[in-house]
Amino acid sequence: MAGERTGPSTPTIVLIAVLATPVVLILIFWLIGSGGGDHAAAKTNPLPNLVGKGLEWAKDKAKNSDFDNVETHDALGRDRHWSDDKDWVVCFQTPPAGTQSGKKEKVQLGAVKLDENCPRTDQALFKPASVEMPDLKNRTGYMAGKILGDKASVRYIAKDDGDEVNGNLGDFRVCSQQPKAGDTFDGVPVTLLVVDYEDRC
Predict the structure, then answer these.
(1) 191 with 178: CB under 8 angstroms?
(2) What are the Cα distances from residue 60, in Å, to 31, 69, 78, 201?
């Protein structure tokens, strides 16, 4: 019949809209959340275990896991520098394996040459001396100087001939010290008896 309405009434349309709105909103938020989750997952690659790996391989793996800031050091504390990472193997890594990636997260890799054994602890790590004399035995001359600080008065004396050692302190090992470990330090002059790094005290 002309003039008759064949579609749903206005109240029905309003009711449908009211009931559908929460469903639509939930669907929208779910889609946004799912997309954000995928985006976040793509940016959180865990750092693999790099200990025991060749240094060049390890650095590449760290960077492929979105860790752009990778630093390396001599784990024996000898302050050696090198041009070919393939000649070195990783002994220590910071942060540990499983750490989620971050562009600002620094990765530190302590390494030794392929024909060397890893030390029990990373010898390049240290706590600066304060008022108590630290135990420096078996530390390299280089690390002993780092521990005591650049303001300290330190003499390095060769054990075999009594001559003073002034250069390449990473090539020498501390055998004894004065003041002794545990004594008051607080800036007093220090004397260290050293031998070649490969020699025993």
Answers:
(1) yes
(2) 35, 11, 24, 39
The residue assigned the tokens 């579609």 is 7
Preceding amide of 179 cis, omega within 30: yes
Polymer length of the chain: 201
- pLDDT per residue as tens, the chain (201 positions): 445 555 555 554 444 444 445 544 444 445 455 554 444 444 568 999 999 999 999 999 999 999 989 999 999 999 999 999 999 999 999 999 999 876 678 999 999 999 999 999 999 999 999 999 999 999 999 999 999 999 999 999 999 999 999 989 999 999 999 999 999 998 899 999 999 999 999
DSSP code of 171? G
Place of tokens 């035995």: 137
Query: CA angle at residue 56 from 52 to 58, to 5 degrees?
Result: 50
Contact present, 78 and 170 (Cβ < 8 Å): yes
Q: How far is CA 52 from CA 3, 77, 85, 127, 197, in A?
A: 86, 18, 13, 26, 23
> Is-contact 111 73, C-beta < 8 A?
yes
Q: Which residues pair with 56 in a beta bridge?
A: none
Spatial CA neighbour of 192 closest among 149, 139, 118:
139
Q: How many CB atoms lie within 10 A of CB 35?
A: 10
Place of tokens 């005591």: 148
